[in-house]
Every structure is written in structure tokens, then in C-alpha cells.
Queue: 2 jobs
Job 1
Amino acid sequence: MRCLAVRSGSCRPGIADLDAEGCNTTLLCMRSFVQPTLFARLSAVSRQLSNMSTAPEPAWKTILEKTSKENAGVASTLSTVEGDQPRVRSVIQRSMIMAKPWLPVMITTTDVRTPKVKQITGSSSKVELAWWFPEPVVQFRITGVAHILPNPSHPLATSFPAARLSPSPHFSWEDERYKTYATKMGGALRASFCRPVPGTVIDDYDVGKEWPEKIPPPGEETTDEEREQTKLALNHFALLVIEPSAVEYLELKVVPNRRTKWTLEGEEWRKTILVP
Ligand SMILES: Cc1cc2nc3c(=O)[nH]c(=O)nc-3n(C[C@H](O)[C@H](O)[C@H](O)COP(=O)(O)O)c2cc1C
């Protein structure tokens, strides 16, 4: 059947044509009637396709992406644990990356010296994120584990599961960290990574007058002092990557209200409907 489809020009060799041993039956079939160079090119395309998933992205990811785009700048609330004490704070979600076709990971930025990093890498990597959007009156609650991606020479760098969370063999998490610093942080935020250790005690507010107010994006510095500040900021700048295992979506505008939960089981998100 597949040979006939190719002859009529309507068959696209792809993942569905690979048998259990990984043998592409469509291509084997085609070998007899296409030119060798064309056959080689089709084989290469087929190999690429066989590495890609045709699975649709998780439903919650599509909804969250659309909602957060329509509500740019809305902060989320991240909880961590410190011993038996929950700790929460506001954070901005910067992006989502499809670490695997079924696994979107959420990217926040932080200073590697902050207490939240100690909590995630010391007490427990379990986190929960609540993200409330006043319009269209919905809340997302994302449960998962967090990973810290600091500068490559930081002692925590080796704990980051870079290979497991890479969308492709060519993906570089360090490039992602650098790109996030260079393109998603404003001058004042870049400068904030040059301050003394966050959360430590100072004598009075005036101490802060000594700290840089803004620093330019990397490559646009004009003085040695600014270049040193970029180095320092990039040393402290880290990505906080949340790997979700469950997502709850609460819709309060629709009547009756709706609460939907997706739970990751293997590579599938199982959907359940809950009493709100
Ligand atoms: C609207 C808003 C957004 C914030 N975004 C971030 C952020 O993206 N990353 C971050 O580390 N801190 C952010 N902060 C500061 C944190 O809430 C918190 O004060 C700081 O990170 C120290 O937290 P920790 O002591 O629990 O580590 C934000 C604060 C506010 C009010």
C-alpha cells in the first residue's frame, strides 16, 4: 500500500513508516524506482523525522503560553521549602523551553547567591508556582522540581541535568543563560547582580548608593569598570528551571467554575477534572 502511495506522489516517508526494528519500509520500497541521490536525501530526511516527535505539545502549555503572552509582565509566586518552613516570593517567568516534546520547562532568572537557591539545592528541589491572571480570571498551579543553572565554573553547575533537559544534541544551556541575560534583562536588573549577597544585613539604605544603577548589555560596555561589572553580574546570574510534574488550571470566569489537572505519567499528561 505504501509503495502505491509513493508512486502516486501522496506518501511522505516519516516516523510512522519505521517498523519495530527501525527499518524504513517505505524507503526500502522506494529504492527500486528513485534515483540514488534522491534516495540518499530522502533517507537523511527520514532519519531526521524519526528523531522528531509528532506528538502535540501539552494542552496546558498552549493555554499558559497564550494567557501569559496576553498578560505580559504578570509575576508568578514561587514556593520552596527550607527545612519544614515554606518560603514564597514573586518571580517573573522569562520563557518556556520544550526540553522534550512532552516536557515544557519554565525559566526564571535569579541571583545564584539568593536563599531560594540554597533551599532548592539544599533542603528540597520540590517547588510550586502559582500564577494568577486577573484577565481572564484564571490561575495556574505548577508542581515540580527546580534546577539551578549558574555560570559554568560555579560548583552547582555540574548538578544541572543539561543533557536530560536538552531539546536537541546541539542545544546549549549556557548559551540560553547568556542570551537570557543579554536580551531579557534591563540595565537596572543587570546591575542588581553586582550587589553584595542578597539578603545580608547592611547598616542603612544609603549603603546602596555605592552600587551601580545600570549596566549596559554585554559587548556594549564603554569602560573597564563596566566590563568588570558585566563579568561580575554574569557570575551571579542563574537560570531557575522548573521541570513540572503536575499542572492545575482554575477558571473562575466561566460558570460553573472549572478546575482541570494534568499529571505527567511517563511521557503523557493525564487530564482530570476536579471540583473547583
Ligand atoms: C514583581 C516582582 C518580580 C520579581 N521577580 C524576581 C525574579 O524573577 N527572580 C528573582 O530572583 N527575584 C524576583 N523578585 C524578588 C523576589 O521576590 C525576592 O524578594 C528575591 O528573589 C529574594 O528571594 P529569596 O530570599 O527567597 O531567595 C521579584 C519581586 C517582585 C516584587
Note: The beta strands are 76-82, 85-91, 93-100, 103-111, 126-133, 138-149, 237-251, 258-265, 268-274.
Job 2
Amino acid sequence: MRAMVLEKIGEPLRAVERPLPEPLAGEIRLRVEACAVCRTDLHVVDGDLPRPKLPLVPGHEIVGIIEAVGSGVDPARIGRRAGVPWLGHTCQHCFYCRSNAENLCDNPLFTGYTRDGGFATDVIADADYAFDLDGDPVSLAPLLCAGLIGWRSLKRAGDGKRIGIYGFGAAAHIIAQICVWQGRQVYAFTRPDDAAARRFALDLGAAWAGGSDEPPPEPLDAAIIFAPVGNLVPAALKAVRKGGRVVCGGIHMSDIPAMPYAVLWGERELVSVANLTRRDGREFFAIAAEAGVKTHTIVYPLGEANRALADLRAGRLNGAAVLVP
Ligand SMILES: [Zn+2]
Ligand SMILES: [Zn+2]
């Protein structure tokens, strides 16, 4: 098999040949059809997240065909399409796993971070954490994290009508479509100089698009921050009404600046979203199909993973980068 491997933090991924691994008990092996590139992959390769497995194959938005199963896994799954998300495994006996919060498990494994991921031709996954999927692999791949984390963020944002989204990338472009389908109004905040992202948001049905330095035309019920920029926290708190909520959807963010308490007062809430549960997945894939979510993708050959990461880092993408072996 071929894989793009992170050997040392901060260095480009290296193309390597490896022997094809065999799935152990409870595992499956997939032939990767597509793997989307997520901002979290950047945080992993840049060393923003502590203690990645090294050497590491990044990538946690994997769609592929199951080619082999380990003991205990139904052999009927061989030949079927499945998706492998960030949540790779949980212990099922810690406090969080027993409280319906496996996303917060004390002993988890994360795909493309603490176990090898999908920037490869083949990948091993825990059978119980892979979702059965149907459809075009490239279009499906961004749903596996941008979609799932976006969905969890939107649930956390509540039922309000006016939803602000800061950072209009892969997650935002999926969640905006769901908001519009649900009859909500989307207010898209982009980098002040990014007219293309604002046009993209409006094309997807956003009611308003502006720079993140602008106030919305009316106070928002909730706002979701997907951009990893701590300065956006006080900006978003100022944009929501009394009792409004700001959800931080990213895994890493630059420091949040000091702010006057008045920005939070008025029963505004600031919360974060971490990882996903398998229940999020079951809910989300059904809703994405019903809402007819269409992902905008930019395809790169697997060997050009470094270029895809660089384009994401530079903010050159409207939509999601997807690697295809
Ligand atoms: Zn656990
Ligand atoms: Zn991700």
C-alpha cells in the first residue's frame, strides 16, 4: 500500500510504500476511495495538538470499500462502502462513555491522529466506528468531519432562526445548506478581504455575508466559530442577542483576547464542541441525504497531499480538499 506519512512535526508528508496490513479482531480494512482534508490535519502536522502517533498517516474523513474483516466482524460487510470518521475508538467504560458522551471518552483513539488515517490507499479501522455509506465517495468524504462536527456544532447552537457562521470553509458550507433547508437564516462572516468566500456563502443561500470585523444587520440567536481565531470570540459574543450562544467548533484556536465582562453578560453563553458520537453520525447522514446537501470539493491526487494542506492553510479553498489515491 501507499501512504503519505508524517514522520516529524512541521515537516512535509513523505510518500512511502508499506506492506498491506491485516485487520485484527473487530477491525476492517478499507481500500480508500477518497479522504477529505480537514483543518485538524493542519493542526496535527503543525504540532498544535499534543502527542500524535509518529510516524503517522493523517486523514480522518475517509470513504472506502471494505476489503477484509477481522474476527468478530460480519463478513457480509466485505465489498460495501463505509466511512471512517475522526472518532476511531472509545473505551465504553469511562464516566463519559457511560453517560452518552463518548465524544469526551478518557481513552479514545482518533483517526489520523492517534491511529493511522486515510491519506493512503488502504486503512485499518474499528468496525464499530465506521458508518455504512452510499453515494459518490468524493462528495461524501467532507461529510465525515466537516459535516459531522458542523452538525454537532449546529445542535449545540440551538433552535434559533438567525445563525452566524464565522469562517466559511468546509464545515460552514455544509451546515449553511442544512440551516437553509431548516428554514433558518445564515449570516456568513469571512476574512474581511475574502470577497470570494462571501459570494460562495450567498450562492449557498446565506441571508447575509460580511467581513468578520462587521456587525450583522440584526442581532443573532447563535453563532458558530469554525475559524481557529480567538479574536472571533468577543466579535461573535457581540453579534449575538441577550441569551444567545456562541459555539466554538474547532479543535484548536489561537488565544482568546481579554474582553470586558459586558460582552458576555446578558446570559450569553460560550461553549465548545469536541469530537463526535456515533449517534451524531446516524442523525447527520440521514439529514444530509434528506436536505440534499451538496459538497463542493477540490480533488487532489494522494501524492499531492502537501499541496492540499498548503492550499487549506493559505485559505485558497472554497469548499473541501479531497485526496484520491
Ligand atoms: Zn470512554
Ligand atoms: Zn476534521
Note: Residues 38, 40, 60, 86, 145 surround zinc ion (ligand 2) (CB under 6 Å).
